[in-house]
Amino acid sequence: MTTVSAYAAPAAKAPLERTTIERREVGEFDVLIDIKYAGICHSDIHQAREGWGEAIFPMVPGHEIAGIVAEVGSGVTKFTVGDRVGVGCMVDSCRECDNCKAGLEQYCTQGAVMTYNGVGKDGEPTYGGYSQKIVVDENYVVGIPEGIGLDEAAPLLCAGVTTYSPLKHWNAGPGKKVAVVGMGGLGHMAVKIAHALGAEVTVLSQSLRKKDDGLKLGADHYYATSDPKTFEELAGTFDLIVSTVSAPLDFGAYLGLLKTDGALVNVGAPEEPISFNLFSVISGRKTLAGSSIGGIRETQEMLDFCAAHGLGAEIELIRADQINEAYERVLASDVRYRFVIDTATI
């Protein structure tokens, strides 16, 4: 075992504090990564505060990890020391179910092993990227291409693939009208990726406060959802709506913005249950769906796509002792658009 410094939540809703954790020794197929940067995802806050249910403490959050390979096991073939690599939301899965075999490890029927707030196959809790090092099986590590800074790449490991996956699955591209609900950590990447895919992109945000940013990042149109006229003007407009917000929506109103056979896909997960009238989907043969991150193969595809199109996250780099302040600022929508921890400060 190797002792490394980390930031952890000792209990639900408690401030994160500096501590140490143990990382396993490098096994035959393991990769030891010196973590350079770790993004702060809204998911980290939900879990550290038990918004999504009972959690495991102490908790070291962080599933947007970018770093450098420091050591590899004797059986590793995909990576060598010095490689630029990333780790996303999961670090293992059963590898045997149909979903795993199809490259959809995020939907493993036995349950994927999450990067943190999970339990590994050794029965030990998993600890995430708010730390100096991590040991991960090579099959759950991806390469970060040259051309993307590691700091701007870190949020792609969750925010990037979480939006790329539904955009690809629902065929966003030329001739398609795509709306992105929310202009935050996930939303700003959805705008960039949808634009790069060739879709006509509209941002639906509570206000016009971030309109200039949205247009700069690739949106063709920008509307305020606080204005009732928005829903009248845009009725029946979109082929696909990707909702990135983690607050309950008026789903009837948003479903009304879809064309026949359109889909409203949720990648943000509110803590509260939602309700809607089924006639909102029956009328127009519409789909209300969800999507969760992406498999390892698709995560690599997303990184390669982003590198080819010069896409990285818009970030604010912070020290580790600013994590608790950053959490409050995320909740206040006071970040443009992703906090990234410089792990050298842990």
TrEMBL record:
Enoyl reductase (ER) domain boundaries: 14-341
SMART domains named among the record's database cross-references: PKS_ER
Gene3D superfamilies referenced in this protein's UniProt entry, alphabetically: Medium-chain alcohol dehydrogenases, catalytic domain (3.90.180.10), NAD(P)-binding Rossmann-like Domain (3.40.50.720)
Single GO MF descriptor: alcohol dehydrogenase (NADP+) activity
UniProt key word Metal-binding: yes
Cofactor: Zn(2+)
One protein family per Pfam: ADH_N
Catalytic activity: a primary alcohol + NADP(+) = an aldehyde + NADPH + H(+)
EC nos: 1.1.1.2
Family note: Belongs to the zinc-containing alcohol dehydrogenase family.
Name the record gives this protein: alcohol dehydrogenase (NADP(+))
Record organism: Streptomyces chromofuscus
